[in-house]
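Render this sequence as a predicted structure.
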Amino acid sequence: MFRIIGLTLVLTSCSTVKKFTKNQNEEQVQKESQEIQKLFKENKGVNEIIGSSDIDANGKSKQKSYYLFGAEHLNLDNYYFDIPVVYNDQVKKWINYFLNRGRGFFERYSQRAGRYAPLLSEILAEYGLPRDLIFLAMAESGFQNNAKSWAKAVGPWQFMPYTGKRFNLHIDWYIDERRDPIKATIAAAKYLKKLYADFGSWELAAASYNAGEGKISRAISRYKTENFWRLTRGRYLKRETKNYVPKIMALAIIGKNLRAFGFGDIDFHEPLDFEEIQLAPATDLMVLAEALELDYKEIQRLNPEVLRWFISPRVENYYLRVPKGFKEKFTQCCAQKEFKATAFQSYRILGRRATLRDVARKFKLKSYVLEDLNGMKGQNVLKKGKGVVLPFRMGQSKRDRMYADLYEKPRRSVVRRRNYRSRIRLAQRRGELIRKPTAFYTVQKGDTLWDVSRKTGTNLDTLIRSNLSVVKNRMIRAGDKLVIK
């Protein structure tokens, strides 16, 4: 697993990144770290997002470069990018958004870029990818490690669970590596490299990152073109995907020309800087923070992948990030001490009998979590009065923000889709199939399947089954022609 120890990153006047690792001794790292912090403060208010590609006025770069045609009237400082960027109506729309209604969003994204973008772009470069792909992460999450979409995509690169695991990100009840800026960026670099190899185009690679490889491949097959902008003219791709690529381009154009767009005074966050300490499994992080005289929120900030108040009992050891200087403090005060978590809440079986799996279901937990803490199998039968250790900390509400993921409710749109799919499946089982249609109904604006059934006197289940090719994957739209007899 990729780890960086004693990492320090900083913006210099030409937007390059300097990196120091464990190969240097502590004294040297400390001295150079202080110099870096000074350089960073002196260069605040620069003209481009920290970490973006450094291309000179003649387009010279280690990577292939692309010139932004058609925007000469904007009098930009940077017209070169290491990903293709165009200036068309779709991109203009997003530029206008970030200069007006979305201005606050862009400012906050840019501030966080000071902390994370140099690190992200350095990893991208190590994998042979364009540094300007950091604007894809900017579009995805605004560089927020804890960002979560309605579809349950998580982290700075917004990985879905399946895709995250596909690229070796560990996800369980204790840890979600999609939230870690280093590990997630390595996974994103591998994924983007694959997408570019598959499609041979950064526009299509980015669109595939949003919609999935299969969706873009089917769009190419359907419209007989590999030009992203032509694909967007059809109805097959969702609006989100059509907007995704121009949004990235708009962020790149503004992000590399901050002064030209009135963002010359961005107060970038300090660059990421940390050390690592090795911990045993099931370590109580709150007790450790108290022993180190360190705010627990700082541990959470540096270790966003850790979801709970204690380290997973399933790991052999864990490398925890701490602020600079705390590694030595840990060695002096705490390295020989045990901080094993013990402050667990408990639950007593009230009925005649239940299994550990029943208790897990009651508290919306994974069975293996209770198995880890109680040393028994999920199917073990528990008698009345038997105590069960729960993973919640004593004094904490089960509705604490730390456990919010256990009790969150899906958005209404997600619930509607689930209900719709369930209704379609039911109709497939119950409805009759009209095999030789003799009458049709053209859907009017505002019609639902229930409306059509009521207007035409056709049984709802029969209506659905007989028009499955239309209604299976989406709700009806005005102009659809439905079989009714």
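Summary. Residues 1-26 have pLDDT under 50 and may be disordered. The two ends are 62 Å apart (CA to CA).
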